[in-house]
Amino acid sequence: MPTDPVARFLAALDPAHREAVGARPQEEQRQLAAAWERELEADDELDTLDELSPAAAEAEAARRVLDREAG
């Protein structure tokens, strides 16, 4: 499992979003990864999901970050 936050964030994305985000400037990728980490830390609902499936919790947090960024 990657330890770099950007690599972990990209791994949590579905393939289409992974490609699109991977094409963005590195600073933007770092900002999204930081928002993703904050989402994982702050949401108690994701903590519960993380106990059942860490990958699912990371994917849900990534989806939320991209949804907020698009909106």
Write the layout of secondary structure elements.
Elements: H1 5-12, H2 15-22, H3 26-42, H4 44-52, H5 54-70
Helix pairs in contact: 1-3, 3-5, 4-5
Structure in a nutshell:
Helices cover 83% and strands 0% of the residues. It contains five helices and no strands.
Question: Which key features would you list for this structure?
Answer:
71 residues, mainly alpha, 5 helices, 83% helix
Number of domains: 1
Taking all Cα atoms into account, the compactness measure Rg is 11 Å
Q: What class, by secondary structure content?
A: mainly alpha
As an assembly, this protein is single chain
Q: Which range best describes the helical content: under 10%, 10-25%, 25-40%, 40-55%, 55-70% or over 70%?
A: over 70%
Give the CA-CA distance, first to last residue: 30 Å
Number of strands: 0
Uncertain residue segments: none
Number of helices: 5
H/E series, N to C?
HHHHH
Instruction: Report the biggest beta sheet as strand number plus sense, adding barrel if it closes.
Output: none
Give the averaged pLDDT, no decimals: 91
Shape: globular
Our estimate of the beta-strand percent is: under 5%
Biased composition (Basic and acidic residues): 60-71
Region (Disordered): 47-71
